[in-house]
């Protein structure tokens, strides 16, 4: 099952299932868009298009948007094939491309169905929430809390924080990202998956 995951203006997770039976989806601020981000003022009416081409999903901006489309923090020029775990940013909204290629019929919005994650320990959960704390009042993703900030909040040592973060990087599948992208990638996936909710921050 291949799907898009993102958070709406209230921070609630949303899911769009992708199917070759509907091979073209529009992402934009227009209420008629298949993925409508009407609350995000930095998203264009017609911002980007996702297309099923051959055996793959691709995202295409092709200068349709004013502020550009980014995949894993790289600005998109033309089309790009999407891979499991890719993060698509349009405006201040980050959309995760997750799952395997499937033949699910139709395209539906459903915030309740999410891919399974490895269970977190209570200590890992506390570290993760502390790392996400700076995002409490932000629609997009910026700078996660530092190791020192997390350690100070939880009253633990920095080495303890680092140990839990290594485990979290592995559980959320971001340990292969460049070092300077791991922390932001962890926050994005934690919040998009609903593991951390804004109400907990």
UniProtKB/TrEMBL annotation:
Q: Name one GO biological process term.
A: regulation of DNA-templated transcription
Q: Which GO terms describe its molecular function?
A: DNA binding
Q: What sequence ranges are listed for the domain FHA?
A: 25-76
**Which InterPro entries does the record cross-reference, listed alphabetically?**
Cell_Proc_Reg/RNA_Proc, FHA_dom, Sig_transdc_resp-reg_C-effctor, SMAD_FHA_dom_sf, Tscrpt_reg_LuxR_C, WH-like_DNA-bd_sf
Tell me the SMART domains matching this sequence: FHA (SM00240), HTH_LUXR (SM00421)
Q: Which SUPFAM superfamilies match?
A: C-terminal effector domain of the bipartite response regulators (SSF46894), SMAD/FHA domain (SSF49879)
Carries keyword Phosphoprotein? yes
Keyword terms of this UniProt record: Phosphoprotein
Question: What is the recorded name of this protein?
Answer: FHA domain-containing protein
